[in-house]
Amino acid sequence: MTNTQLPEKKLLTGIPASPGIIIGKAHLVDRSRVKILYQYLINEDQINREVERFKKALCITESQLLQIKNRMPERMKDHSFILDSHIMIIHDSMLKDATVEKIRKEKINSEWALKKSFEEIKLLFDEVDDYYIRSRLTDVENVTERILRNLSGNNDTSLSQINGRVIIVAHDLSPADTTELNITRVMGFITDAGGRTSHTAIMAQALEIPAVVGLEQATKQIREGDLLIVDGNSGQVIFSPDEDDIIAYQEKQLRHEQYKSFIARTSHLPAVTLDGQRVYVMANIEFLEEVAAAKDYGADGIGLYRTEFLYLRSKGIPSEDDLFEDYREVAEIIAPMPVTIRTFDLGGDKFMAGLKTAREMNPALGLRAIRFCLKETKIFKSQLRAILRASTLGNVRLMFPMISGVQEVLDAKAILHEVMAEMEKEGIPFDHQIKTGIMIEVPSAVAMAEALAEQVDFFSVGTNDLIQYSLAIDRANELVAGMYQPFHPAILRMIRQVVSAAKGAGIEVSLCGEMAGDPLCTAALLALGINQLSMNARVIPLIKKIARTISSEDARDDLEKVMTLKTATEVRKHLLRTMSELLPELGEEGILDLSGGAR
Predict the structure, then answer these.
(1) CA–centroid distance for 51 within its chain
(2) CA distances from 449 to 264, 314, 443 (A)
(3) Do residue 192 and residue 235 come from a single domain?
(4) Can you give the CATH number for the domain in which 377 is found?
(5) Both 233 and 317 in a single domain?
(6) Closest of 342, 313, 314, 315 to residue 330, by C-alpha
(7) Residues 303 and 227 in one domain
(8) Which of 75, 241, 454, 478 is deepest in the core (most CB within 10 A)?
(9) Are 134 and 476 in contact (CB under 8 A)?
(10) Which is catalytic among the residues 27, 171, 256, 512?
């Protein structure tokens, strides 16, 4: 009698994109890139026919996306803007017009011309320092691949046709693919590519199905029908698990659902520490469509509205009226709670249609954010007017990004006052007492915090950039990303210095970025004097729960110990031990392992 050898258990670790735990069988979906088999030159008399072939493929692609959008489940309607942005990409001059020009000038076939256009766009995105903006290249790639498939006649089977309860395994999924998932059959998905902020991840969260992305080798190692355990909380995927794993994760799955229900029931209650300190837990948003979800998760307001996407998804520079309509809706929906609108953080390195800027050797340290606004005052004034017009319709606050010194604040305020004077002359109402603040996200702003505090109504510590600039770490660079350390003692000292300056001047101070939503950081941030936190909306119920379990006095006592530690590893270990003792269920659920700094 021969023994049948069971497949060897393996563990893959990726990026948790949508929470939850599932156990099921793998279904491999081929979403690999289209291979251009033919790259050839065409004759003069073939040019018009080739251009028409390309334009026909664009029309088919747009029609497909519109059909998918119209079939979107009701729960995903708030995210239809993602497919709208893909339709806009089809018509973007850098893709459409550039490809037609290559067909005509270089006399090459459509597939080849389109591929060359995409490579040129990719070079522009590669220069962008901002991780979120860089991740939008995936959307351009998704659209390009769909056009190529339509050019080649190679149309994929719709994911809506999948039968049986399965876990999708793919190299990548586009937002359109994700929209077509039938959640009565698809339990969740895992992909080789992708990141936390990808639109595919946003779609998975909207569908409330577990997803892990960025696994790199999943499609090469997992076979059709393999049994999988997918942990969307920790980013771990086990294939060919043993019986003990299955039992353990079934129990963990049940605990997770019970715990999620428990904290959701209290998400709309105020977060008050055991000794009576009120903590305001707010949401970061990119789009108007996210405001409703922020309210659902119990946000105390919008602590950071990043306004760049309005410029990036527009075919040109958006008008004052377009901006006003967006800001008005956000202010009215979230009222009477506050919304802090950050002026756009764009520059010569960003991919924005309708504006020609010089290429820069190091755009991260170049003409961006407030520097760009002070140079392109016409665009800046248009946004300021839109924000001021919206200020009478809700609790609106204005914030300038990437301030490095006092002069930039003085210059920005001078332009703001010019705009106010113009609007007053024109009889356009606005809030004359609108609160104005700045983001503290570069080391020079920390050093000058006392002087800066005299000029503004509030600070917001932008930890994502502050960590990058202070530690000289590009967190999007995989070679050094592991050195991106929120728990670095220098960062904690900087935050303490900023809080001290703010309190000395009697102004508010909040903190946004990934640290704000990191469960390991909550107690330390409260102890440092931060009682306003702004984060991804989905984390709000958890952070509120943690805040209610903390005594701010005990947290301050513990901070004295933390501030004597010399390395990020020591700080993390100490905070992990403290939080595990305070809330042991967080350790059991793996929730304390979710933060970027906790790995």
Answers:
(1) 36
(2) 37, 36, 10
(3) yes
(4) 3.20.20.60
(5) no
(6) 342
(7) no
(8) 241
(9) yes
(10) 512
Assigned token pair, 203:
């779609």
SS (H, E, C) 110-173: HHHHHHHHHHHHHHHHHCCCCHHHHHCHHHHHHHHHHHHHHHHCCCCCCHHHCCCCEEEEECCC
The torsion angles phi and psi of 170, rounded to 5 degrees, stand at -145, 160
Tell me the pTM: 0.69
Nearest CA-CA partner of 548 in 267, 248, 230, 258: 267
Note whether 35 and 124 are within 8 A (CB). no
Is 512 one of the annotated active-site residues of the chain?
A: yes
Looking only at the bridges linking them, the beta strands covering 211-213 and 186-191 are parallel
Would residue 199 show up in a list of annotated catalytic residues for this protein? yes
Residue with tokens 């390309």, as numbered in its chain: 54
Mean pLDDT per 10-residue segment, the chain (599 residues): 58 88 91 68 91 94 88 71 84 90 93 91 73 72 89 71 86 81 87 77 81 91 93 90 91 80 84 96 87 91 90 75 95 97 71 49 65 91 98 97 95 97 97 97 96 98 91 67 81 97 97 90 95 91 93 94 94 90 68 44
CATH number at residue 251: 3.50.30.10
d(CA 375, CA 373) in angstroms, rounded, equals 5
